[in-house]
């Protein structure tokens, strides 16, 4: 008798445990841990993951597995264990940890088919496939062919494909293909009557462009004909029409020029040495590669990966989604060619699955991808690299709320391989660990070819106001803008705006109201005209004069990209501007397209938010302007200074990366703030020291750990009372050293008519914390499942809203 222990796909805490099922005899040889199965659960059939197989169980009345849903395990043993560990670390359900590791195409709503992949004669396959190349899963299952097909998949003669059932949510475009040979085309063109000029145009177009499918839109644009012309050609039988999925893998048809390893500079060799030692010695070590922008970090990654591949092992490279640009991909594909799989959100679900399969089939040994690529199902990992390790996008902001860095180190330990965290501006946490010797610090301080860092000028906007300039452009920035326009050089204008909050600032002295208890800016609430601290709940009304300088120019602060665009149009009507923000880039591929346009010189100014801070490497950019360095500085987030420093450093790095020297203008109301001043000097070490002092004063990471509990519900009273009970409970259970703040309203106090309250825990060592938090979740389970209560627990939060 074989028993399978299954984690079922029912998202509640009560069901977050193993359920035993009997494996029917016919599946005994077939079923393996890591496969998904459908099992009876109450009155329904649901999905689940097989975690382990065993011979005995305590359960008396065993139900049987209904049927397998996979033909081979979709999660290997390592990932099954990782999922368990992850769910304990971040307090999520095991099912959500497992689901997070799989590509979307493998989720339930996709249809599975078996596909023959070699066309050699094979009597067995000929018989079961008939004269078709594909066989539907359900049919195969009914004919009890699954175990046999499992063997064929192992032999490499059959593969399994996931088809998207629901075509409606896919964008398709109409394409047409000419059915005539070139000769027939010529004849047809000659035979057309004199006034069929338009049809002639279309046919000639196809004569030139071969017999591929071409989008109808494109044909219309190029030839200038109306849709009716094309329709009549189709009805004559000259063309075949089809709907094609619009998106194509941007890399599919590109040939990447093969690149050779550079002769390393001395700094690069010094950095490589200990990495190679760890690769050769098969032991785990975490390196923090702190190199200024343009110091050649990527080359260090590439050559480290090469030695891993030489040993027959595999590599994972994580890159923030936003900088996973074609430029970045090119560098990896250029070096390792088809050995590289790319995983990012721009790919369609099917394409993502294909890339994932390349990894699984061991056709690709290097994966370059965003956060979730950390779960790549490699079995022989030799290195994990996280580029721009300070980026917040490595933290997933929904369940499971994991940080890719933690998973990387977990997997690194398991595979005994190095983990490299690279950044010009490492997170405080990582740098502090390198100071304590937990990570090994590798520094690269010189830019390639000793290129100078761009010169940075910090403009005091209070001064501008005093001199009567009320525009959002300082005189210096405006003059430089005009100068670049006349020289036909390009400018990047950066507007730092994020989140929904705003703050109150004195435009004369730059003073910003702070919470007396939390060292955090107070957030202005327009409706109540009140200022609030979102950590502790402190409230104050907006003063009518500045407490620092008695000026009356103290008020709410904030500007949007649209406003800047309008202002530019007024002041510099001749300038061509490309605006990049969430509004202009929400469509698939828009981000790349706009950048492409800018690169091709179709605009003078690129105006945007954080999304333009990274990865831009265009030779013609000689000016970078930061419109207001302060907007992020005053977010209700203890990392505000760190983020400001990182962002300003990144943005400044965009200018003058090539022959033309670069200049940076940073406009600010607080030029004396250390994060602005030190970003101007690109002085990370000094910034680190200063910021560590601030963190110590405020009892923040890396001196303390944090856990953030956010409670939400439609009923305000309920939210307040539950958050209060949670806070009281924690006070009674945690040690005296733990600091528990709240209940306080969240920085975003209401979303979708649901009120939000929070409670923040700061602690150094609380061995029982996760247990207590889990207990809390269990306690409120009833209200969570049936009364619409939400309790989010974020261990090591990055989003403080
Ligand atoms: P980072 O990743 O640190 O910002 P990059 O890897 O982009 O720096 O390197 C900057 C430039 O220097 C790139 O164009 C890269 O091709 C080039 N480069 C890197 N290493 C070398 C080397 N050893 N010799 C010559 N050029 C190099
Ligand atoms: Zn003031
Ligand atoms: Zn406070």
Automatic annotation (TrEMBL):
Binding site for Zn(2+) 2: 515, 518, 533, 536
InterPro entries, A to Z: DEAD/DEAH_box_helicase_dom, Helicase_ATP-bd, Helicase_C-like, P-loop_NTPase, PriA, PriA_3primeBD, PriA_3primeBD_sf, PriA_C
A Gene Ontology biological process term: DNA replication, synthesis of primer
Gene Ontology terms: cellular component: primosome complex
Keyword ATP-binding: yes
Helicase ATP-binding domain mapped to chain residues: 278-444
Domain Helicase C-terminal: 541-698
Cofactor binding note: Binds 2 zinc ions per subunit.
Cofactor: Zn(2+)
Catalytic activity: ATP + H2O = ADP + phosphate + H(+); Couples ATP hydrolysis with the unwinding of duplex DNA by translocating in the 3'-5' direction
Family annotation (SMART domains): DEXDc, HELICc
Subunit and interaction comment: Component of the replication restart primosome.
Known function: Initiates the restart of stalled replication forks, which reloads the replicative helicase on sites other than the origin of replication. Recognizes and binds to abandoned replication forks and remodels them to uncover a helicase loading site. Promotes assembly of the primosome at these replication forks.
Stated family: Belongs to the helicase family. PriA subfamily.
Protein name: Replication restart protein PriA
Organism: Heyndrickxia oleronia
Organism lineage string: Bacteria, Bacillati, Bacillota, Bacilli, Bacillales
């Amino acid at each position: 008798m074989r028993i399978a222990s299954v984690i079922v796909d029912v998202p509640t805490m009560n069901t977050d445990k193993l359920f035993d099922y009997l494996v029917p005899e016919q599946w005994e040889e077939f079923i393996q841990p890591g496969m998904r199965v459908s099992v009876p659960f109450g009155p329904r059939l649901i999905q689940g993951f097989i975690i382990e197989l065993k011979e005995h169980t305590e359960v008396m009345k065993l139900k049987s597995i209904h049927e397998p849903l996979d033909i081979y395990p979709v999660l290997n043993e390592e990932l099954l264990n990782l999922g368990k560990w992850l769910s304990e670390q971040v307090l999520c359900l095991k099912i959500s940890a497992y689901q997070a590791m799989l590509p979307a195409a493998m989720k339930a709503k996709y249809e599975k088919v078996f596909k023959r992949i070699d066309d050699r004669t094979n009597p067995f396959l000929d018989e079961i496939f008939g004269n078709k190349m594909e066989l539907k899963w359900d049919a195969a299952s009914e004919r009890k062919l699954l175990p046999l097909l499992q063997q064929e998949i192992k032999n490499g003669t059959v593969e399994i494909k996931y088809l998207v059932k629901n075509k409606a949510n896919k964008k398709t475009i109409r394409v047409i293909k000419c059915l005539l040979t070139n000769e027939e085309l010529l004849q047809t063109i000659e035979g057309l009557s004199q006034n069929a000029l338009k049809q002639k145009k279309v046919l000639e177009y196809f004569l030139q462009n071969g017999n591929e499918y071409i989008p109808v839109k494109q044909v219309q644009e190029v030839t200038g004909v109306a849709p009716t012309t094309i329709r009549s050609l189709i009805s004559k039988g000259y063309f075949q029409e089809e709907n094609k999925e619009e998106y194509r893998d941007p890399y599919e048809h590109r040939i990447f020029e093969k690149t050779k390893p550079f002769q390393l500079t001395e700094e690069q060799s010094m950095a490589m040495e200990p990495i190679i030692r760890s690769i050769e010695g098969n032991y785990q070590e975490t390196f923090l590669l702190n190199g200024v922008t343009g110091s050649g970090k990527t080359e260090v990654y590439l050559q480290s990966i090469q030695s891993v591949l030489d040993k027959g092992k595999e590599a994972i490279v994580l890159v923030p989604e936003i900088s996973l640009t074609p430029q970045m991909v090119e560098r990896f594909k250029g070096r390792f060619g088809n050995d590289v799989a790319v995983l990012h959100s721009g790919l369609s679900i099917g394409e993502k699955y294909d890339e994932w399969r390349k990894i699984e089939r061991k056709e690709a040994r290097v994966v370059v991808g965003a956060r979730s690529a950390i779960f790549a199902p490699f079995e022989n990992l030799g290195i994990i690299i996280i580029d721009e390790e300070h980026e917040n996008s490595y933290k997933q902001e929904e369940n499971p709320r994991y940080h890719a860095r933690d998973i990387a180190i977990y997997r690194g330990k398991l595979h005994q391989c190095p983990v490299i965290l690279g950044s010009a501006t490492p997170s405080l946490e990582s740098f502090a660990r390198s100071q304590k010797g937990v990570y090994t610090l590798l520094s690269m301080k010189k830019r390639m070819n000793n290129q100078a860092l761009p010169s940075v000028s910090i403009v005091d906007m209070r001064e501008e106001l005093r001199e009567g300039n009320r525009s959002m452009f300082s005189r210096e920035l405006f003059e430089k803008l005009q100068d670049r326009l006349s020289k036909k050089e390009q400018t990047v204008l950066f507007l730092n705006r994020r989140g929904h909050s705003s703050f109150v600032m004195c435009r004369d002295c730059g003073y910003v109201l702070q919470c007396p208890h939390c060292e955090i800016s107070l957030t202005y609430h327009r409706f109540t005209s009140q200022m609030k601290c979102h950590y502790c709940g402190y409230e104050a009304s907006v003063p009518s004069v500045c407490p620092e300088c008695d000026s009356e120019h103290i008020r709410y602060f904030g500007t949007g990209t649209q406003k800047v665009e309008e202002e530019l149009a007024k002041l510099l009507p001749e300038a061509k501007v490309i605006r990049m923000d969430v509004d202009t880039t929400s469509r698939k591929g828009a981000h790349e397209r706009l950048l492409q346009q800018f690169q091709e010189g179709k605009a003078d100014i690129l105006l945007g938010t954080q999304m333009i801070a990274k990865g831009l490497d265009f030779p013609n950019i000689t000016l970078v302007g930061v419109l207001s360095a302060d907007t992020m500085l005053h977010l209700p987030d203890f990392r505000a200074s760190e983020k400001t420093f990182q962002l300003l450093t990144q943005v400044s790095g965009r200018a003058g990366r090539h022959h033309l020297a670069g200049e940076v203008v940073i406009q600010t109301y607080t030029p004396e703030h250390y994060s602005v001043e030190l970003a101007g000097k690109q002085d990370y070490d000094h910034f680190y020291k200063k910021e560590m002092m601030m963190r110590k004063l405020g009892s923040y990471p890396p001196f303390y750990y944090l856990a953030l509990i956010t409670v939400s519900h439609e009923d305000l009273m309920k939210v307040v009372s539950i958050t209060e009970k949670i806070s009281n409970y924690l006070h009674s259970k945690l040690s005296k050293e733990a600091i528990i703040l709240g209940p306080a309203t969240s920085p975003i106090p209401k979303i979708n008519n649901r009120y939000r309250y929070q409670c923040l825990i700061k602690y150094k060592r609380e061995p029982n914390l996760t247990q207590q938090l889990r207990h809390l979740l269990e306690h409120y389970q009833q209200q969570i499942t049936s009364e619409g209560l939400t309790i989010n627990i974020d261990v090591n939060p990055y989003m403080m809203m």
